[in-house]
Fold this protein.
Amino acid sequence: MTSRFWARVQLALALVWMLLIAPTLIWWRDSVLWVALMSLWANIAAHLSAWQAARAERKIDEAGEAS
């Protein structure tokens, strides 16, 4: 998957989270399930970001070894 794809995915997900601000504050503020889902998503997103960073670093290292 390309960096352009991941940039679009991240932008789309950021927009989704921004759209969820109002319902969260109005209807779901006392929902334990909603807080649990947000926490899970935050952990997943953090691990995916770290994985992408590690992939980028590995590509840079491989390019340096090849030259």
About this structure: The longest helix spans residues 32-66. The chain has a mean pLDDT of 84.
